[in-house]
Structure formats: C-alpha cells, structure tokens
Amino acid sequence: MTAVLLASAGTSSFPVLPALVVTPVLGALLVMVLPRRRPELLKLVAVSTAVVTGAMSFWLLSAFKVGDPGFQFLSETPWMGDLGVSLLFGIDGISLFLVILTGLLFPVALLAIDPGHDARPYYAWMLLLEAGVMGVFGALDLIVFFLCFEVVLVPMYFLIGRWGHGNSARAATKFFLYTMAGSALMLVGILALAFLHADATGADISFDLVAIAEAQSLSTGAARWIFAAFALAFAVKVPIFPLHTWLPDAHTEAPTAGSVILAGVLLKLGTYGFLRFGLYLFPEASHYFAPVFLTLGVVGIVYGAIVATMQADLKRLVAYSSVAHLGFIILGTFALNTEGIEGGLLQMVNHGVSTGALFLLVGMIYERRGTRMIGDLGGLQKSAPVLAGVFMVVMLSSIGLPGLNGFVGEFLVLLGAFNAHRWWAVAAAGGVILAALYLLWAYQRVFHGPAEGDNADMPDLGLREALVLAPLLALIVFMGVYPKPVIERMEPAVDSLVRHVEFHVDGFSEPVSQMGSEIGPLDDSHGEHG
Amino acid sequence: MLGQYLPIVFLIVLAFLFAALSFFASRLLAPRSPNDKKEAPYECGIIPGREAPERFPVRFFLVAMIFIVFDIEIIFFYPWAIAHGEMGLFGLIAVLVFSLAVFESFVYLIGNGALEWGPIRREAQTGDVVSATRTTSTTVSRAGIRQVGLEGRTGGDS
Amino acid sequence: MIAALTTPYVAWWALVPLITFAVAGFLLLTVASLVRRLPAVLAPAWTAVAGLGVLLYLVPMWSRVGRDGADSFLAGTVGVDRSSIFVTGILAVAVIAAALISRDYLPREDLPGVELYVLLLMSAAGGVVMASANDLIVLFLGLEILSIAVYVLAALHLRRIESQEAALKYFLLGAFSSAFLLYGIALVYGATGSTNMVRISAFLAQNVLVDDAMLLAGLGLLLVGLGFKVAVVPFHAWTPDVYQGAPTPVVAWMAAGVKAAGFAALMRVFVLTLGTYVSDWRPAFQVIAAATVLAGAVVAVVQTDVKRMLAYSSIVHAGFILVGLQAATDRGNSSVLAYLAVYAFLTVGSFAVVTVVSGTGDASHGLDAYRGMGRRHPALAGVFTVLLLGQAGIPFTGGFVVKLGVLAAAVDGGAYWLAGVAMLAAAVAAFVYLRLLVAMYLEEVPSGTETSGAVPLGALVVAVASAVIVLVVGLVPGPLLDLARDAVPVLVAG
Lengths: 530, 158, 494
Prior knowledge:
The complex is a heterotrimer.
Chain A: H1 2-9, H2 16-33, H3 39-63, E1 72-80, E2 85-91, H4 93-112, H5 119-138, H6 142-151, H7 153-163, H8 168-201, H9 209-215, H10 220-237, H11 246-253, H12 256-279, H13 283-309, H14 314-333, H15 338-369, H16 380-383, H17 385-399, H18 405-420, H19 422-447, H20 463-481, H21 484-504, H22 520-529
Antiparallel strand pairs in A: 1-2
Helix pairs in contact in A: 1-22, 2-3, 2-5, 3-4, 3-5, 4-5, 4-12, 4-15, 4-20, 4-21, 5-6, 5-7, 6-8, 7-8, 8-10, 8-11, 10-12, 10-13, 11-14, 12-14, 12-15, 13-14, 13-19, 13-21, 14-15, 14-18, 14-19, 15-17, 15-18, 15-20, 15-21, 17-19, 17-20, 18-19, 18-20
Chain B: H1 6-29, H2 36-39, H3 59-111, H4 136-144
Chain C: H1 12-34, H2 42-68, E1 71-73, E2 78-80, H3 82-108, H4 115-131, H5 136-154, H6 161-192, H7 197-206, H8 213-230, H9 238-245, H10 248-273, H11 278-301, H12 306-325, H13 330-358, H14 373-376, H15 378-392, H16 398-412, H17 416-442, H18 457-475, H19 478-486
Antiparallel strand pairs in C: 1-2
Helix pairs in contact in C: 1-2, 1-4, 2-3, 3-4, 3-10, 3-13, 3-18, 4-5, 4-10, 5-6, 5-10, 6-8, 6-9, 7-10, 8-10, 9-12, 10-12, 10-13, 11-12, 11-17, 12-13, 12-16, 12-17, 13-15, 13-16, 13-18, 13-19, 15-17, 15-18, 16-17, 16-18
C-alpha cells in the first residue's frame, strides 16, 4: 500500500514535508549556539527560520494537485524496523490548510512578540514546537503521529511556564498532565490496532494509517474500544466540554505568542485527529459514538458562550470563546457529511486566524496598559482608532458576520448539522447569537465610552504590529469573500472521507451510490502508476 | 534408605536426654540457699563494685573474624588434601583460586593494620592527639548528631 | 570411592568478562593494600578501564556467539548467549559510570580508600554470573556475590547515619530474600530433580506433574527472592530508604547494574526455565506489574526528597520492565533488554546530576537544592531535563522507544488492560518529573544561593554522555532495537 502511495506521489522528489519538520529543528539548534546576549540576532534567526518554513508550506499550496483526494508529497523513511514504524509523511486536502496555517502563524507570533527575558531558549522552544506541529499534520504513520502529538507538550509546557504570567507554573503543569493522561491510552490503542490488524490480515506489523484504515480489518467491538481510546486523547486536546478546564488557565497564563499558537494551532491537533484518525480509521465507531460528540459539541458551544459572557478578563473571554468555536468544529465533524466536515475544517483555519489575531490584539493592549481586565479598560477607540478598527474586524469574523471568513465555516457546519441532526443544529445556532452578545458587549466596554486615565493616551498600533496583523486581516477578508480556492482543495479529500465513512457504516442514513468506486482514489492511483 | 540416618537420630535423642536429665537432676538434688552474691550473673562470691567496663578492644572481634576466614579455608583444604590425586590439575587450580581469594583478604587486613597491636604509630603522636575537651561523653553525644570524625584531633593525622 | 574427576569443559573465551572484573578488583585491592598513597585518580581510572575493556571484548564475543551459537560449559552450569552478553554490556556501562561519578565524590566526602571500586568490580562480577547462570545454584552464587558487595557499598559513607541505616535495612531484607530464593530453589529441585535450568525445563516439557504444588510453591518463592532484588511491589519497601541513604554513586550502580542483573535472572528463571508454566506465573506477574507501576507512580508524587523520588520512579520502571517480561515472548524479552539498557543510561545520568547537586555531605536532596538550577547551571539543568523527559517517556527520547517496546509486547500478548494501566501510571509519574522541571526552571532562585562552582568532570561526562545517548536512541532507535532483538536468551545444554 505504501509503495503504491509513493508511486502516486509523483511530482516532487524533494521531501518537502520532512523538510518542514527538520528546518525548525535546525533553526532551534542554530539559535542555541548563538550568543545569549544578542536578542536581535536570535530573533532574526528564529523569524527567518519560521519564514522559510512558512514559505515552504505556501509552496505546497501551489504544488498541490487540485481535485486529487489522495495523499500527496509522500515520503517514507524506515525508522524502527522491528516494529514496522516508518517516518511516513503525506498531506491531502484536509491537512494542507492546517500545515499552511501553522506556517503562517509561527512567523507572525515570533515577529509580533518579544519574550522579554531568556530569549534564546524561548526561540528554540518556539521552533521545536513548530516542528512538532508540522509533524502531527504531516504524519501518516500512527506511531510518528503519536510521537509528534505528545512531543509538542514539552515546548508548550516551557513556553507557558517560563514566559507566562501569574501562576504560570501551575497552568503549565495542568496543561501537561491533562493532555498526557488523555493520550496515555491512545498509545495502547494504536498498538492494539496495529497488532489486531496484523493478526487479521496476516501482514507484518505496520502502523501505516492508510493501510489500516482501508483494510478495516477489526471487529466492531474492538474498533469501538480503540476509537474510545483515541477519542479521549483528542477530546482532551480539542478540548471538548467536560475536559476543557485546562484551556482557560493555559490561555490566560500563557505569554501572548503561546496563546496565539495554542489557540491557532495546538487546539487543531485534536479536531484534526478526530478527522484523520477517528473518522478515517473507525468509520463505524465514529458513527456509533456521533450522538455523544454532537451533544457535547452543542453543550460546548452554549456553555462556552455563556461562560465567556461573564468573564472579566479579556484573555479569558477569548479563551472561552474558543471552547464555543471548537464545539462548532466538533459538531460539523460528527455530522458526518461533506458540508459539516468541510465547514468544520474551514472553521479550524478560521478559528486559527481569528482567535490568533484576537490574542495578538489582547496581547498588544496588555503590553500597553498592563492589564487585561475589561473593567480597567474603556474608550480605547479614541486613543487607538486603528487598533480598535482591526479589533472590530477580527471580532466580527469571530462572530461569523457574512463577508468575513467565520461566516463561511459556521454556515457550512450548521448546514451539515441541520441535514443530519436538525435539533442539534437549532441549538447550536443559538450559540451564534450568544457569540455576538459577549463579543460585542466586550468590545463596547473596552473601546467605547469615556477614556479615563491611562486609557486616554494609549499609543496606537506601530508599524511592526500593523505589519504582523495585515496578513491575518487579509486572510479574514479573502476567505470570507472568496473561499472557493480553499474549498476546492479541501473538497475531494473530504468527499472521499465521507464516502469512506458511509461505505463502512451499515445502514447509514443517506443513500449510498456507486459502491464500486467508493474507496476509489487510492485504487485509481494504483491504476495509473502501478 | 532412611535407616542409615538412625544412628544420628539416636545420638541426637541421647544428647537431648542427657542434657535434660542433668539439668533436672541438679535442680532436684542440689541444696539451695540463694542470696545476692549467689544470684549475681557471675557467681564468684564477690558482689561487683561497678559496672563491667564498656570499652572493649574491637581488635578481638577482628581477630575472631579473621580466624573464621581461615577456619573455613581449612574446611575446604581438608577434603582437597584427601582427594587431590583424583581431582588433578583442575582441582589444584580451583583450590589455588580459592586460597588466593582468602590470602587476598589477609593482605588487605594487614595492609589496613588489622593485626597491629599496641599503641598505634607512637612516632606520629608528637602533640596531644586527643584534645582536652574530648571525653567519652562528648564523643558519644557527638556521635548522636553525626559529627564524629575530624573534630577533636589536632594536626594532620596520617 | 571417589571416581576420578573429569575436568569439565571450560569456554575460557566466554569467561573473560567475569575474570576481568574479578581480577581487576583483586589486583586493585592488593596494590592498594601494599602501596601507601596511591594517586587518587588511579582507582577510578583502573575501574573504568576494566569496564571499558569488558565492553570492547564483548564486541568479538557477540559476533562469535552469533556465528557459533550459544554455548554452555562448566558441566552445564554456566551458559553464554547473546542476552548474557547484552546484560554484561549494561553492567560494564554501569561500572564505568559509577566509577566516574565516584572519582569526584569520594574526595569531596573525604572518604579515602579504594574499597568502593573494588566492591563495585566484585559486584559486577557477580552480576555477570547471574546473567549467564545456567543453574539455579550458580544463579544464587552470583546473586550473593553481587548483593553482599552492594550491602557494604551502601554503608560506605562512614559519617552519614542514613548510609549505615540503609545498609542495615538492605542487608537484613536482602538476607531474607536470599533465604526465600534458596528455599524456592530447593522446592524446585524437589519437584523436578535438578537445579540445572536446562534439565528443569526439559523435565517440565516431558513430564506432567500430577501434583505440582511443590513446584508452584518453589516458583512463588523464587519470584519473592528475585522480586526483592529488582524492587517490585510488594517487595519494594526497602528501595526509597536505601536509595536515600546510600552514597549516590552507589545508588547509580544499584539502580542500573543490580536491576539489570536481577531482571536477567528473572528472565532466565521464569521465561526460559519455567516457560511451560507460563500460564501459572503470568497472572501473578501481571498483577505485580500493575501494582508496581501504580504504587510507584502514586507514591512518587508525594515525595519531597529527590533521591526518594527517583527511587520510586525506579520502581515504576521495574513495573514497566515486568510488563514486557510477562509476555514471555521473544518480543517481550528483547523489549526488556532494550528497556534495561536505556534505563541504565537514564539512571546513571540522573544520579550523576544528583551527586553534583547534593553538595558536600551528600545531604541536599530536597527540591530546594534544584530551585533555579536552570539559571545557575544551565548546562547541567539541560542535561537533567533530557534525562527526566526520558524517564517520563517523552517522544524522541530513548525512554519512549523502550516504553513503546514493552507496551507493544504486552499488547501483542493480549494484555491490553496491563498496557493501559502502565500508560496511566506513566502519566501520573510524569508529574514527578515535572515537579523537578518546575523547580529547576519555573521557580526563582532562593536568595542567598551563590552561583555554584565548576561541575566535577567525572559526573559531568557521565551525565552528558547519558543524555546524548538517550537522545540518540530516541531519534535513531534502530541499532539498539536490533541489538536487543538479536539478544534473545536461549538455554543450551552443556
């Protein structure tokens, strides 16, 4: 199967996906050997490494074959021969935009915020974090995926703990332990999956995602158990409603760059995991458990919105708004139809851009005013009109105003959910209204009204800050107005995933047609190249 | 098969019987007139005037331990001496390895002065080796707080 | 009548590691007894060279055994296979590391004498015997040579009352466990008519015991005796006290070397010799493994003394190794060996750092001593971070690779619940390592703490080398896994 995939990789011989992982690691090593007392040099190296990585990820966009639902840019290196683990990388329309999002947000976060102290380890950890995230989105081997999924904890732990505010050590430890405990059983699940698959097919032990997912060799019971182990790990990482308590703490105590990356990229690891490793590996179990996740997703939307309304801390408010947004993504994913999944996927990117930008803006206000308490702020519009305007656009995108990116995603999610599970969609739509409530209310309190004291003479955005925010703003508008380039790249992969799920679920509610070509993409490539 | 062991069993039983008989016989037959002097642990007719001295040259223990080592060596040597012809070169090598290990410990003991008697290195004691403040009680109390060691000594003790 | 003794076949080439350790200790003791005022560097250098020599010799030995197959000699009482070579290699590494750490430790603590090195070498010789024993009596001999030396080693710090306490506890409990082991050997002998492992396994393969109560009792007692040496629950209670009290370099040897030899013995006795009774002992092993990982992890969390923390974490590791061992498959055995190797590096490196931090008197083992270490000793703290993350089993460290191995062995054998319990315990144990990381990086340097001086070379070399190896194994696990796979133990008749 792998050999077949490699054959279909075709175009480029340069292993661009491993390079996306290796480049930041090399950058981190380079940073560590540079002199400690030259922060500007350190920053230059770190930012340029991230920019190079980002450029490579954007190059993927141009080289990506539109309309191909299979994996592209495949590369494979044997690693642990005895266990059949190999460094297998490849992306499809589902992971493409998450890779690009990662490539975009890291330079932005690095450029926008200076660490303040201990610059050298800060940049090194940031770059290692980027490498880990790229590894997660690119990995097609279950063990390699797990490795990267786990290893991002370490840099994030140090980033929150060392450069955070307040009781950051506690928040960092909580974050680490929650996610590590959550994913503990996933490793057992991965091993069980691979060994059961090997037993059933008689093949050598292998952790090749595509081979295992296409074979679907497990019994229903075993698949449901293993799916539960996977789902727990992803649910903590997303986080889904009752497991979300680490998130507000981690967001609030993290440094601004940490929050940006955490919200923009790390939370996507869980939702991406559900798509790639939940639905694809366990279509039947995903369908079986879907009501649970739909319910929890809706609960998350409403709960997140209500709690966000009551927050006095601007950063905490944004953090809880993330809980609500991620509820939408879960809702879309488990609608198990093309619209829902596509909307969820779009929403992942949108949330990364919008919430990333929101955290940046909150960080900028905090840098100027030394406080994030809504009560202490007010009337900032007068002293900083540009900042207020940018904040307004980003906030509206987060609310889901038509014409901005958030609308497209939320609309598709609701459409998909409505087709599959009407009442859940209705409840979720209430969450959209609540989002408008808490964000507009917060905006009003922070930016309108009379400006008193320090609020009156707060400096506006500087050139560097504007430069950093510009690409995010551009994306927000572009994807809101013209989402087609994104959707047309996502759609084939999402379609084939949905058909994969439908094919393997008995009595799926929607009629299934053309059974023969359901697992088509891989067989097609086989036909062409094999 | 087990019949071979019967004499040994008899011997053991006899030994026990003899000991028990003697014990009870003396209890029954001996005249008894207890008093303090006779009840003392070491009955010699004189009541001890003070507690037995607690300081006791540790060297005696060392000698006893060294003795045990060589005692065991004899235990191994004896059967070898009886059967060395049959055991041949292999037996010789084996017993050589063994005795080498025993002598090694002997060398170590001598090297560390385990068998040096009398005042140690009189020539080194040019001044007061023990300070005036150091007495049995201070040493003991210091041992309690784990400070036994270099304090109390003057000059570079070799 | 005494029949003429036929000289047994001796494969001298296979005895070289054992003889090297024993003779090196022997000569060192003799020279030190005869010559006053040896240069201080001689003993550690000598010990390390002996370990290095053994390590180098193992290379041709490895290929010879690969070519000619495993061998057994001295009337079938000693065997040499690749697993015994592998474990000997671990022992040699632990000896080298302990010697290097001690090089600066002994002068700092003002403990003259070469006894530590001599006992280290002797105990390594005992470990080699254990790893290549083909007979239960020889196994016991090796165990005693190893243990008695370690009892003395634990007491080596004359001025620390804890050291004396540790030695006494270890000695008393160790003596009990030896008695259990011996009784177990006696019962197994009674049930099978031999103490030779090959003959026992052949006997059990050919005969079905009508009444196997005696054998099972013997098996249980063997498990108690060996379980004590490797410190699995419920025979672990001595570990924290002894680790806390014993001199830190000695603890490095105890954790890395003694454990490796103990698990090698467990593997030979249970997986190889009593393999036909696997369905009888596996449930016991599984329960013990689960209890060990859980108890070790949970209790480690509440420790305040770093040496005790590491002691409990070593208990967790022992549980993980049992998780691989209970599978009783080739995959399980090789995963155990790989785990032992990486674990050896993790512990010697960690205890090298602990030795440095503890300061004169070997006393400061509280978390306070580690506060702000990231600022005071960035290099040392960085190395310690790698080692701790390795112990926690974070990806891209050797710790993850070997944890994956034992879990894969357990899952392959169908012990899903055990693998799950072990992973949850690993998550709990991660908190322990995080506490140390928090202390090193996230807490302020206590005021008045001076910037500590230079890090002693020996300990630094050990710590850095261990961290590098742990990272390399994590990134390129192939070579180690291949070695461990080829090191599957076998029993051959003499």
